[in-house]
Amino acid sequence: AAEERRAVAEALRPEQALRRVAVRVDAALLEDAGADILLEALRALGCEYHVEPQRPARSLRWTRAKPDPCPRTVPSEVWAADEQDVLLLLEPEEFLQGIQQLTQTRGPSCSVPWICPESSTSPHLAVIGLDAYLGSHQPSSQEMRQPESTSVARAAVALSWPKVEEALVLLQLWAHLDVLLVASWQELSQHVCAFTKALAQRPFRRYRESRAFSFCVAGRWAASERVASDGTGLRGIWWRQIRQFHRVSPAVAHAIVTAFPSPRLLQQAYRSCSTEQERLALLADLPVKMGEGMRPRRVGPDLSRRICLFLTTTNPELLLDLGS
């Protein structure tokens, strides 16, 4: 069992998982001078990339291989292929033409640009330099008075930002299509690398979610404390639980555990208090053992209040630490 756990940990390790991810870059993207920035970023990331024709054109596609050998205890759905790991790069003019068509012909008969009806996948979209393109294609007042001018004809596809934002909302809500707007290839490369890392870590997240209680440690171990069948070790867990509160030193936790060796004993003490104020201050004056030559101290009212609320409140939204 221990050997199998080590195999699972090795197979799901982020460094290993990243080596099994490959980015497939459409060869048409290399016509853009900025594509070198993307390829250099992928090389620095340490994952594989392949330049080959993709469908649709000017797109990136991610693939992930299973580890060999594949641990038997990992469910098969952890390694399931992802259906929407496709990023389609669009020129600003092409994107504006598409959303202009979409906003003008919206309705049941409207087909969403960039989505192939025969395909079951919807690509994510990326547009580089849309802001700069819109700024440079706004017609001047003189050109507005000459509707037949070539400049205005070119600017016909340049929509205003409010119209673009309206189209982005429409694409997301109606067509379930995400659009990434970036200013440069450098920014696009950062997004591609971040997405590649997240994709590499996806099997680990799926494996963790597939376990019924992923936050529990298997066997007799809990928080690195061995608990015997007679209860030996529970006191250490209680000490660690107190240490999880903000601004609690080992000495303070030791003072509380010494006075109340278990949470149940502390809860019983709270029930015996006659007032709420007495409960909140129950631990405040407990002495804390400090090192030789150091000033004596006590647990204090703030931590006393937090621990009391933690063990007695029925409000799940209650904020325990007012200083956070």
Automatic annotation (TrEMBL):
GO terms for biological process: double-strand break repair; mitotic intra-S DNA damage checkpoint signaling; replication fork processing; resolution of meiotic recombination intermediates. It is found in: Nucleus. The keyword Ion transport does not apply. Keywords: DNA damage, DNA recombination, DNA repair, Endonuclease, Hydrolase, Nuclease, Nucleus. Residues 22-271 form the ERCC4 domain. GO terms for molecular function: crossover junction DNA endonuclease activity; DNA binding. GO terms for cellular component: Holliday junction resolvase complex; nucleus. The keyword Transmembrane does not apply. Part of the heterodimeric MUS81-EME2 complex; the complex forms specifically during the DNA replication phase of the cell cycle. PANTHER family: CROSSOVER JUNCTION ENDONUCLEASE EME2-RELATED, EME1 PROTEIN. Belongs to the EME1/MMS4 family. This is Structure-specific endonuclease subunit EME2.
